[in-house]
């Protein structure tokens, strides 16, 4: 930590180490600089760890060399240092394994959360996050903080594989400054394609020198990103004081899983569309709009009828497919680093989540998404502001208001990843729980977020994955706030 601090004030210029190519981190990377993210996957088959390592090494070295880089803070600037060639002295990743040679099922281990598949429809429910799964997704040597990843020659990518007779856990860990969730999904997709026999030359990769955000260099014509606040000193102190007071009053931060069956989500969406049709409206809502509207209505239903506290809602949005890059087109090649901005809804008073219908709330979400997508020039302006102000802190709401940030990983399609090409034979005498005819799929996504700093996560959450049965979300709230949701009766707590 001391070295990181002192480097910001150093007057000397340190050269890059020999044998690496340096790529500066962009302003888009710096917002998550202190977070370490593990994308934890649970696959319903016994996999061959050696084959997993060999194929992922090939993908990193041949298709995504930037994933095999190192993170450095040199001359006060964060950068990636990508080895010119990989080998024993510069491995593309740290790959660790554990083989339990037994079935996962045990009274000593938590159950893997699943969706009910019975004949009777089940309601949405709150389920405790099985934190005990963490030990199967990170090795004891995996860095837990940014400082650990700033160690010289420390690979960005740490992969831990825990193999059971009937399940395999794969944890992919990296500093968030280097990957966002969709970037990780891009790497995982290429990995499984190679595993399943696709020719390497047909799998799109990312150029070692790719820097698409260079086109946004220069000054900005706007004072702050839309929907976010560049607070003055007094308001900044007021925001921080109110936030700290809220933590003191509700000090225990609790993550929960939210399980939403597809039958419930699809039925709710159909009811809203029927209502809009009866009103003669030509507007529409998507399932993600309905999911978010339902969640906010559920979350704030216990608020008092006269509570007009503004709620500022933000949705991170993928920029890769937006027509804002060279020649006004989407990116045409993979980009694994951070490429996310945020859609901000106009603030909603807390009591509106009681008084407005679910259809009205879903339309609020859809209209905000449509307005954002329809204005590429404004998206470019937002990105250009970030690039012109690297490291500047914006606030998600003014003092006296509240915020909620919801990510959505549905586009990452984690449940669609197929690891069948790495299927291993069951050990002699083991009762095989899978068959060669069934694909080795991801049945659960278990992310882990850590930091060397005690960063509060409350007021954040989002969709982890969905499959044919339902959607999984993860949400962070204070324990007292969760209790108020429980007492409202708006959700089933399992």
Describe the structure.
With 494 residues, this protein is α+β, with helices and mostly antiparallel strands. It has helices at 2-7, 49-62, 146-149, 181-195, 233-249, 262-278, 287-299, 352-355, 358-373, 376-388, 479-488; strands at 20-24, 35-43, 70-74, 77-83, 94-99, 125-128, 158-163, 168-175, 253-261, 310-318, 340-344, 348-349, 402-408, 442-445, 448-451, 460-466, 470-478, 492-493. A hairpin with a 4-residue loop joins strand 7 and strand 8. The radius of gyration is 23 Å and the shape is globular. Residues 5-11 have low confidence and may be disordered. One of its GO terms (molecular function) is acyltransferase activity, transferring groups other than amino-acyl groups.
Characteristic key phrases:
11 helices, alpha+beta, 494 residues, nine-stranded mixed sheet
What order do the helices and strands come in, and which of them pair?
Blueprint: H1 2-7, E1 20-24, E2 35-43, H2 49-62, E3 70-74, E4 77-83, E5 94-99, E6 125-128, H3 146-149, E7 158-163, E8 168-175, H4 181-195, H5 233-249, E9 253-261, H6 262-278, H7 287-299, E10 310-318, E11 340-344, E12 348-349, H8 352-355, H9 358-373, H10 376-388, E13 402-408, E14 442-445, E15 448-451, E16 460-466, E17 470-478, H11 479-488, E18 492-493
Parallel strand pairs: 5-7, 6-18, 10-13, 13-16
Antiparallel strand pairs: 1-4, 2-8, 2-14, 2-15, 3-4, 6-9, 7-8, 9-17, 10-11, 10-12, 16-17
Pfam families: Transferase
InterPro entries: CAT-like_dom_sf, Plant_Fungal_Acyltransferase
Keywords: Transferase
